[in-house]
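U., I forgot to send this yesterday:
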Amino acid sequence: MKFKFSLESLLRLRLQLEEQKEIEYGQILQKLQEAKERLHHIEEEQKKSFEHWREKVERQGTVSLWKEYQPYLQKVKRELEESQRCCSKLEIEVENKRQDLLEAVRQRKTIESLKEKDFEAFQKEVQRQEQKVVDELVTFQYYNRQI
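Result:
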């Protein structure tokens, strides 16, 4: 007698879904990491630019430099803000994908738990049938000795 789980195809489907969710989660984590690296790069660029501008102003002492650097500094500031918004959105997406993955894991574990219970019931039934065969053999041997 061989064990056959009636929901095996559903379990395989849940496993595939979980693997897909793991991939999606990994991809969005990668995007978040890249966005954070970009943000860090922009922050560093902003610091260096501001420091460079400040040194020039100290050396030359003119306000015209402010007018020169103002558009560039504004551009870097906008890039920084956009990068921060991007990171915030990605963090929300990461959390959503994490929740999706956790739900997929929960669903798979539920089906696996049912499979384990079915297997235990199968093993008990096999043991019961084996015991029944043994009992019948013992009874048969007992009656054969009596005759």
